Amino acid sequence: MHAYLYRPPGDGPFPLAVINHGSDEDRARRARVAMPSFPALAAWLVARGYAVLLPQRPGHGITGGRYLEGQGACGHPDFQRAGLAAASSIESAVDFMQAQKFIEPGGIVIVGNSAGGWAALALASRNPAGVAAVVDFSGGRGGRDRNKAYNNCAPDKLVAAAAAYGRTARIPTLWLYAENDTYFAPELSRRMVDAFVAAGGDAEYRLLPAVRGDGHALALTAGREASWKAPLKAFLDSLVRKQRQD
Fold this sequence. Notes:
Helix content is 38%, strand content 17%. The protein is an alpha/beta fold and 246 residues long. It has a single domain, classed as Rossmann fold. It has a seven-stranded mixed sheet with strand order 1-3-2-4-5-6-7, sandwiched between helices. The chain is globular, with a radius of gyration of 17 Å. The protein starts with a strand and ends with a helix.
């Protein structure tokens, strides 16, 4: 996998944050996708002392190769399998970074947007060693079926897959969604997190006010960080306090 790495000054070791991009079922669009950047989010995390990795998963952009995380036809999608396949790619990146001398082996934060957020939740279901928390921005699969706003191709299956992840996930998770997310409307994102928690998962859900443009791009571009900074800071601060107590 190709990746960008940003790190604070000095030799470390630094805690690691891994930011994971979305996806597209269309092969041509996947091939053209740029390397992930998340400028505001990456800069904010680096300023807090994290080394930040932004991997590009197989089947996308210059990483290329076989697409591993397809959800299948919308008539019979397998959202659970799609998320777990993407999670395997993320886990490979984490394993590589844990072997680097400038990275702390624990306290890792996995962040994801859209399909990347869904993959981060899937990874939480595996409770990998060293991963301390997951942050899901606008996560899910099957959104905007036939490019129609608020039209998920199989919402009940998405909720069921969230429950499946929650049955084994024991890592704290933060779910951040905007009111005007046209891929995963508030009603659907609430159903997902409720199913995740009811099954045993540990989740904090924040529905954020509408942002400029489509709220699904909450984490993608500069200018929207005012909406997510406070809840993300509070979540990470609580994580640090827990680590110190342990």
